[in-house]
Amino acid sequence: MLGAGLRWYQIGQHSFWFDEALSSLIANLTTSEIIANVAASDHPPGYYLLLHAWLTVGQSETAIRSLSALFSLATIPLLYGLTRWLFNSGAASLVGLIAAISPFQIYYAQESRTYSIVIFLTTALIWIFMVNVKRSNSWLTWGGYVLIVVLALHFHYFIAFVVISLHLWLLLSSVNVIKLRIFQTCNHLSKGVGFDRLNQRTNLMTVVKNSGRLPARQLLLADMLIALLFIPQSSQAISRTTAYLTTVSWQSSPHLLSPLITLYYLLFVHRTPWPQLMVSIGLFLLLLILALILWEGHRRYDESQKQSERALWLILVVPMAIVMLISWLIRPIYLDRSFAIASPALMTLLAWGTVAAPRRSPTPYFMVGLMLTMLITLSAHYLTPDPAKPPLREAAHIIATEFAPNDVSLHLQNASYIPALWYTPDIPHQQIDVSGAFFTSPEAQYALGGQVVEWQTALIDADRLWLTVMLGYMDDEQKAIKQEIESTYSLIRVIEFEQTKLYLYDLKE
Question: Considering the entire predicted model, what is its pTM?
Answer without folding.
Answer: 0.91
